[in-house]
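We now fix the convention by which a protein and its fold are recorded. The integers have meaning only within a learned vocabulary of local backbone shapes. A complete example follows; check for yourself that the lines match position by position.
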Amino acid sequence: MSGAPELAGQTVVVIGGSSGMGLETARRARTEGADVVLVGRNADRLAAAAHDVGARSTAAFDVTDFERLGKFFDSLPGRIDHIMVTSGGPYYPRLSEIDFDKARQNFESEVAMPLQIARHAKSKVRPGGTLIFMSGTGGRSPGASPLVATFTAGLPALTRSLAVELAPVRVNLIAAGFVDTPLSAAILGDQLEARREQLRRILPIHRVVGPADVAALAVHLMTNTALTGATFDIDGGQQLVQECP
């Protein structure tokens, strides 16, 4: 083994790269020799993240603005090697509580946005490069919100379909359980530490999954050229423990 950086000379675009799993993936890609381009909504957070990891460039905009998304991809010089998509946020209403305006916005970020990115990836990502989407495992529970259950079931099928249509660009999906990110902290508030303690106690790995775990998997998907059309769970065994929602 040479020990050479596995992404040397390559360019990784991280959509949702200003914090959490996206930022950690950018950091991991940089350690493997890649140039990174960070995309996010908040210009200040994006600038801080870019300084943190030494990003080549940034673009601050809402990726559900599909006209602006197209201009971003058009502005990229030449081909890129990998796209990682972590943007989008959860919307967990019960059926009786669904706000259909919010549901349509959620559809834009969970389904329409991946499709738009895939269309651009077909011409912008080099053959053998990767497009990686993020999803979750919580929607597999029978008690999950109907919207979450729908998107959780649909994205693996979308990934398989795109892996065929975009070939030889490779398409994969990372399905995460609870990951200890700033978004998780914002959702749970003062319940965060109790959740961490519960997971440390009952997960088979006896610790909480963090952004670095997801980043390691994402970079592996970029470098292992035999992987496409698959969904990779990363939840520390969360689905194996009935007491853990």
Summary: The domain at 11-233 is CATH 3.40.50.720 (Rossmann fold). The chain has eight helices and seven strands. The first strand starts at residue 11 and ends at 15.
